[in-house]
Amino acid sequence: MGRCPATLPRILLLAFVLVACSAKTGSGGEGVLDAAWKASTTKTDGSPMDRVSYRVYYGTTPRPCPDGPYLAVSPATPSPGQTVTARVTGLTVGQLYYVSVTAVDSRGVASGCSQASSATARHP
Questions:
Q1: Is 108 helix (H, G, I), strand (E, B) or coil?
Q2: Sheet holding 83-92, edge to edge
Q3: Which domains does the chain have, with CATH numbers?
Q4: 81-90, pLDDT tens digit by residue?
């Protein structure tokens, strides 16, 4: 994907957190991961950002973004510092997953991938 132009929103991952409770390894089933991050309301050049959505990429490899499956998240217009959350479902309980987030502007242009975090899928 290369570097982001200065006009793209920068994801403030001040609190990019994966919440995962312990699960029995190899138990299978419908596992989930919960992700949370602080919404950015300005572009990297400091100007206000237009309506934004996010893509939460996930997978079993350390770099799920930008080629892995993703969950599209479209929160209401975020306020400064708002925590955005997403639940990734349909995962294998006990499996380690990696998650990374991108911001997408109103033209559909995505920012660069955040650093991936990892957690083990749990029962909902």
A1: coil
A2: 12-19, 30-38, 83-92
A3: 12-120 (2.60.40.10)
A4: 788 899 999 9
